[in-house]
Write a structure and sequence with these properties.
single chain; Rossmann fold; UDP-galactose 4-epimerase, domain 1; 2 domains; 7-stranded parallel beta sheet; two-stranded parallel ribbon; globular
Protein backbone atom coordinates (compact mmCIF):
# COMPACT_ATOMS: atom_id res chain seq x y z
CA UNK A 1 0.00 0.00 0.00
CA UNK A 2 1.28 3.45 -0.97
CA UNK A 3 0.87 6.08 1.77
CA UNK A 4 1.57 9.79 1.35
CA UNK A 5 2.27 11.62 4.61
CA UNK A 6 2.00 15.41 4.60
CA UNK A 7 3.99 17.13 7.33
CA UNK A 8 6.41 14.20 7.23
CA UNK A 9 9.27 16.20 8.74
CA UNK A 10 7.26 17.31 11.75
CA UNK A 11 7.02 15.73 15.16
CA UNK A 12 4.25 13.18 14.58
CA UNK A 13 4.87 12.93 10.83
CA UNK A 14 8.48 11.84 11.16
CA UNK A 15 7.58 9.17 13.70
CA UNK A 16 4.71 7.98 11.50
CA UNK A 17 6.64 7.83 8.23
CA UNK A 18 9.49 5.78 9.70
CA UNK A 19 7.07 3.52 11.59
CA UNK A 20 4.99 2.80 8.48
CA UNK A 21 8.06 2.03 6.40
CA UNK A 22 9.24 -0.42 9.07
CA UNK A 23 5.78 -2.00 8.89
CA UNK A 24 6.18 -2.63 5.15
CA UNK A 25 4.25 0.27 3.62
CA UNK A 26 5.51 2.18 0.59
CA UNK A 27 5.79 5.63 2.20
CA UNK A 28 6.51 9.03 0.70
CA UNK A 29 6.41 12.40 2.40
CA UNK A 30 5.65 16.03 1.66
CA UNK A 31 6.80 18.93 3.83
CA UNK A 32 7.73 22.57 3.29
CA UNK A 33 10.35 22.32 6.09
CA UNK A 34 9.23 25.66 7.55
CA UNK A 35 8.96 24.20 11.04
CA UNK A 36 10.89 20.96 10.70
CA UNK A 37 13.79 20.14 12.98
CA UNK A 38 17.09 18.76 11.72
CA UNK A 39 16.52 15.80 14.00
CA UNK A 40 13.23 14.85 12.35
CA UNK A 41 14.67 15.25 8.86
CA UNK A 42 17.62 13.07 9.85
CA UNK A 43 15.22 10.43 11.23
CA UNK A 44 13.48 10.23 7.85
CA UNK A 45 16.73 9.96 5.95
CA UNK A 46 18.11 7.30 8.29
CA UNK A 47 14.78 5.46 8.08
CA UNK A 48 14.93 5.38 4.29
CA UNK A 49 11.81 7.49 3.76
CA UNK A 50 11.75 9.63 0.64
CA UNK A 51 10.10 13.03 0.66
CA UNK A 52 9.63 16.12 -1.46
CA UNK A 53 9.97 19.70 -0.26
CA UNK A 54 6.58 21.13 -1.18
CA UNK A 55 3.90 23.36 0.28
CA UNK A 56 0.31 22.21 0.73
CA UNK A 57 -0.91 25.70 -0.24
CA UNK A 58 0.69 25.35 -3.70
CA UNK A 59 -1.54 23.32 -6.05
CA UNK A 60 1.27 22.89 -8.58
CA UNK A 61 3.68 21.53 -5.99
CA UNK A 62 1.08 19.15 -4.54
CA UNK A 63 0.12 17.88 -8.01
CA UNK A 64 3.75 17.13 -8.78
CA UNK A 65 3.98 14.90 -5.71
CA UNK A 66 0.67 13.03 -6.04
CA UNK A 67 1.06 12.55 -9.80
CA UNK A 68 4.46 10.91 -9.39
CA UNK A 69 3.76 8.88 -6.23
CA UNK A 70 0.09 7.94 -6.85
CA UNK A 71 -0.81 7.20 -3.21
CA UNK A 72 -3.57 4.84 -2.17
CA UNK A 73 -3.93 6.63 1.17
CA UNK A 74 -3.30 10.23 2.18
CA UNK A 75 -2.43 10.90 5.82
CA UNK A 76 -2.80 14.65 6.21
CA UNK A 77 -0.76 15.92 9.15
CA UNK A 78 0.67 19.15 7.73
CA UNK A 79 -0.68 22.11 9.72
CA UNK A 80 0.20 25.03 11.93
CA UNK A 81 -0.47 23.88 15.49
CA UNK A 82 0.41 26.63 17.99
CA UNK A 83 -2.72 27.81 19.83
CA UNK A 84 -1.13 31.04 21.06
CA UNK A 85 0.13 31.89 17.58
CA UNK A 86 -3.30 31.19 16.11
CA UNK A 87 -4.79 33.82 18.41
CA UNK A 88 -2.28 36.37 17.08
CA UNK A 89 -2.37 35.26 13.43
CA UNK A 90 -5.78 33.78 12.61
CA UNK A 91 -5.58 34.58 8.90
CA UNK A 92 -2.31 32.64 8.53
CA UNK A 93 -3.86 29.64 10.29
CA UNK A 94 -6.92 29.80 8.06
CA UNK A 95 -4.76 29.95 4.94
CA UNK A 96 -2.54 27.00 5.84
CA UNK A 97 -4.92 24.76 7.77
CA UNK A 98 -8.09 25.31 5.76
CA UNK A 99 -7.02 26.33 2.26
CA UNK A 100 -3.98 24.03 2.42
CA UNK A 101 -6.19 21.11 3.43
CA UNK A 102 -8.57 21.78 0.54
CA UNK A 103 -5.66 21.82 -1.91
CA UNK A 104 -3.96 18.61 -0.80
CA UNK A 105 -7.20 16.64 -0.46
CA UNK A 106 -8.54 17.89 -3.80
CA UNK A 107 -5.38 16.92 -5.67
CA UNK A 108 -5.01 13.58 -3.91
CA UNK A 109 -8.59 12.67 -4.83
CA UNK A 110 -8.05 13.79 -8.42
CA UNK A 111 -5.11 11.40 -8.72
CA UNK A 112 -6.88 8.37 -7.34
CA UNK A 113 -6.39 8.27 -3.58
CA UNK A 114 -8.88 5.86 -2.01
CA UNK A 115 -8.78 7.02 1.61
CA UNK A 116 -7.94 10.23 3.47
CA UNK A 117 -6.84 10.00 7.10
CA UNK A 118 -7.22 13.52 8.47
CA UNK A 119 -5.38 14.34 11.67
CA UNK A 120 -7.58 16.69 13.67
CA UNK A 121 -7.42 17.87 17.25
CA UNK A 122 -9.32 17.83 20.53
CA UNK A 123 -9.25 21.62 20.15
CA UNK A 124 -12.41 21.30 18.06
CA UNK A 125 -14.41 20.56 21.23
CA UNK A 126 -13.49 23.74 23.08
CA UNK A 127 -14.34 23.84 26.78
CA UNK A 128 -16.06 20.49 27.47
CA UNK A 129 -19.60 20.44 28.84
CA UNK A 130 -19.05 16.92 30.16
CA UNK A 131 -16.11 14.61 30.77
CA UNK A 132 -14.70 12.44 29.37
CA UNK A 133 -15.21 13.92 25.92
CA UNK A 134 -16.77 11.54 23.39
CA UNK A 135 -16.97 12.04 19.64
CA UNK A 136 -20.63 13.03 20.04
CA UNK A 137 -19.71 16.00 22.22
CA UNK A 138 -20.67 19.34 20.62
CA UNK A 139 -17.85 21.14 18.81
CA UNK A 140 -17.23 24.69 20.00
CA UNK A 141 -13.56 25.65 19.57
CA UNK A 142 -12.24 28.50 21.71
CA UNK A 143 -9.30 29.54 19.50
CA UNK A 144 -8.59 29.96 15.78
CA UNK A 145 -6.47 26.80 15.67
CA UNK A 146 -9.45 24.71 16.78
CA UNK A 147 -11.70 26.50 14.30
CA UNK A 148 -9.36 25.69 11.41
CA UNK A 149 -9.09 22.02 12.38
CA UNK A 150 -12.88 21.74 12.55
CA UNK A 151 -13.20 23.42 9.15
CA UNK A 152 -10.66 20.92 7.82
CA UNK A 153 -12.79 18.05 9.11
CA UNK A 154 -15.84 19.36 7.27
CA UNK A 155 -13.85 19.81 4.07
CA UNK A 156 -12.41 16.29 4.20
CA UNK A 157 -15.77 14.67 4.90
CA UNK A 158 -17.58 16.62 2.19
CA UNK A 159 -14.89 16.26 -0.48
CA UNK A 160 -14.53 12.51 0.12
CA UNK A 161 -18.28 11.95 0.02
CA UNK A 162 -18.59 13.86 -3.25
CA UNK A 163 -15.73 11.83 -4.74
CA UNK A 164 -17.20 8.59 -3.33
CA UNK A 165 -13.99 7.88 -1.43
CA UNK A 166 -13.45 7.14 2.25
CA UNK A 167 -12.13 9.19 5.14
CA UNK A 168 -11.14 8.65 8.75
CA UNK A 169 -10.80 11.61 11.13
CA UNK A 170 -8.61 11.26 14.23
CA UNK A 171 -9.01 13.87 16.94
CA UNK A 172 -5.72 13.81 18.82
CA UNK A 173 -5.48 14.97 22.40
CA UNK A 174 -2.16 16.18 23.88
CA UNK A 175 0.59 14.30 22.05
CA UNK A 176 4.10 14.30 23.52
CA UNK A 177 7.37 12.45 23.03
CA UNK A 178 10.84 12.64 21.49
CA UNK A 179 11.50 15.03 18.59
CA UNK A 180 8.84 17.55 19.57
CA UNK A 181 9.84 20.96 18.23
CA UNK A 182 10.60 23.14 21.28
CA UNK A 183 9.43 26.26 19.45
CA UNK A 184 5.90 24.91 18.98
CA UNK A 185 5.64 22.24 21.68
CA UNK A 186 3.28 22.00 24.61
CA UNK A 187 3.93 21.90 28.31
CA UNK A 188 6.31 18.89 28.34
CA UNK A 189 9.12 20.21 26.15
CA UNK A 190 8.65 23.81 27.27
CA UNK A 191 9.09 22.63 30.86
CA UNK A 192 12.26 20.77 29.84
CA UNK A 193 13.56 23.91 28.11
CA UNK A 194 13.16 25.90 31.32
CA UNK A 195 14.77 23.17 33.43
CA UNK A 196 17.76 22.93 31.09
CA UNK A 197 18.28 26.69 31.42
CA UNK A 198 18.22 26.39 35.21
CA UNK A 199 14.91 28.24 35.40
CA UNK A 200 11.74 27.15 37.21
CA UNK A 201 8.99 25.89 34.89
CA UNK A 202 6.01 28.15 34.23
CA UNK A 203 2.49 26.96 35.04
CA UNK A 204 -0.24 29.09 33.48
CA UNK A 205 -3.16 29.55 35.84
CA UNK A 206 -3.45 27.57 39.06
CA UNK A 207 -2.17 24.29 37.62
CA UNK A 208 -5.40 22.45 38.45
CA UNK A 209 -6.45 22.33 34.80
CA UNK A 210 -6.33 18.84 33.29
CA UNK A 211 -5.13 17.39 30.00
CA UNK A 212 -5.05 13.99 28.31
CA UNK A 213 -1.41 13.20 27.52
CA UNK A 214 -0.85 10.53 24.86
CA UNK A 215 2.57 9.26 23.78
CA UNK A 216 3.57 9.68 20.13
CA UNK A 217 4.32 5.97 19.75
CA UNK A 218 0.72 5.16 20.62
CA UNK A 219 -0.53 7.81 18.21
CA UNK A 220 1.32 6.40 15.19
CA UNK A 221 -0.12 2.96 15.93
CA UNK A 222 -3.59 4.54 15.97
CA UNK A 223 -2.93 6.14 12.60
CA UNK A 224 -1.92 2.79 11.12
CA UNK A 225 -5.19 1.36 12.39
CA UNK A 226 -7.03 4.23 10.67
CA UNK A 227 -5.24 3.36 7.42
CA UNK A 228 -6.34 -0.27 7.65
CA UNK A 229 -9.75 -0.17 9.34
CA UNK A 230 -12.93 -1.32 7.66
CA UNK A 231 -14.84 1.16 9.85
CA UNK A 232 -14.39 4.17 7.60
CA UNK A 233 -16.19 7.53 7.31
CA UNK A 234 -15.93 7.90 11.07
CA UNK A 235 -14.39 10.22 13.67
CA UNK A 236 -12.29 8.80 16.50
CA UNK A 237 -10.75 10.31 19.63
CA UNK A 238 -7.12 9.34 20.20
CA UNK A 239 -5.79 9.91 23.70
CA UNK A 240 -4.82 8.03 26.82
CA UNK A 241 -8.32 8.29 28.27
CA UNK A 242 -6.84 9.56 31.54
CA UNK A 243 -6.68 13.13 32.88
CA UNK A 244 -3.60 14.60 34.54
CA UNK A 245 -3.38 17.94 36.33
CA UNK A 246 -0.85 20.31 34.82
CA UNK A 247 0.81 20.88 38.19
CA UNK A 248 1.22 17.12 38.65
CA UNK A 249 2.57 16.76 35.13
CA UNK A 250 5.18 19.47 35.67
CA UNK A 251 6.21 18.03 39.03
CA UNK A 252 6.65 14.58 37.47
CA UNK A 253 8.88 16.05 34.76
CA UNK A 254 10.95 17.78 37.46
CA UNK A 255 11.28 14.49 39.32
CA UNK A 256 12.34 12.53 36.23
CA UNK A 257 14.83 15.23 35.27
CA UNK A 258 16.30 15.22 38.79
CA UNK A 259 15.42 18.89 39.31
CA UNK A 260 12.77 18.85 42.04
CA UNK A 261 14.40 21.88 43.64
CA UNK A 262 13.12 24.05 40.75
CA UNK A 263 9.69 24.92 42.07
CA UNK A 264 7.15 25.94 39.39
CA UNK A 265 6.10 29.57 39.14
CA UNK A 266 2.60 30.65 38.11
CA UNK A 267 1.58 33.03 35.33
CA UNK A 268 -1.85 34.27 34.21
CA UNK A 269 -3.95 31.87 32.11
CA UNK A 270 -3.38 32.18 28.36
CA UNK A 271 -6.08 33.35 25.91
CA UNK A 272 -7.80 30.44 24.17
CA UNK A 273 -6.77 27.81 26.73
CA UNK A 274 -9.44 25.47 28.07
CA UNK A 275 -9.79 24.37 31.68
CA UNK A 276 -10.34 20.60 31.52
CA UNK A 277 -10.11 17.95 28.84
CA UNK A 278 -9.68 14.22 28.53
CA UNK A 279 -10.84 11.71 25.97
CA UNK A 280 -13.42 8.99 25.91
CA UNK A 281 -11.56 6.51 23.70
CA UNK A 282 -14.12 3.70 23.88
CA UNK A 283 -15.07 4.10 20.21
CA UNK A 284 -11.44 3.82 19.05
CA UNK A 285 -10.97 0.83 21.35
CA UNK A 286 -14.03 -0.94 19.97
CA UNK A 287 -13.78 -0.10 16.26
CA UNK A 288 -10.05 0.43 15.67
CA UNK A 289 -8.70 -1.91 18.32
CA UNK A 290 -6.70 1.04 19.66
CA UNK A 291 -5.16 0.63 23.08
CA UNK A 292 -2.59 3.12 24.46
CA UNK A 293 0.38 1.12 25.73
CA UNK A 294 2.69 3.78 27.14
CA UNK A 295 1.95 5.06 30.63
CA UNK A 296 2.63 8.68 31.51
CA UNK A 297 5.70 8.03 33.66
CA UNK A 298 7.23 5.74 31.02
CA UNK A 299 6.52 8.14 28.18
CA UNK A 300 7.84 11.15 30.08
CA UNK A 301 10.98 9.22 31.05
CA UNK A 302 11.64 8.50 27.35
CA UNK A 303 11.03 12.14 26.51
CA UNK A 304 13.30 13.46 29.27
CA UNK A 305 16.05 11.04 28.20
CA UNK A 306 15.74 12.17 24.57
CA UNK A 307 15.81 15.83 25.53
CA UNK A 308 18.88 15.50 27.72
CA UNK A 309 20.71 13.48 25.07
CA UNK A 310 19.75 16.05 22.42
CA UNK A 311 20.94 18.91 24.56
CA UNK A 312 24.24 17.14 25.25
CA UNK A 313 24.84 16.57 21.53
CA UNK A 314 24.08 20.24 20.81
CA UNK A 315 26.75 21.39 23.27
CA UNK A 316 29.52 19.25 21.76
Amino acid sequence: MRVLVTGCCGFIGSHLAVYLRCRGYDVYGLDNLSRATRESVRALEEGGVGYRVADITSPDQVVEVVRLFKPDVLVHLAALVDVEESVRRPSLYTYVNVYGTSVVVEKALEYGVERVVYISSAAVYGEPRRLPVSEEHPTNPTNPYGVTKLAGEHLVKTMCRLARKHYVVLRLFNVYGPRQNPSYAGVVVKTLERIAAGKPPIVYGDGMQTRDMVYVGDVVEAIERAIETQYVDEIYNIGSGKPVKIKDLVNLILELAGKKELKPIHAPPRPGDIRHSYADISKARKMLGFEPKTGLREGLAKTVEWYMRRRLSCTK
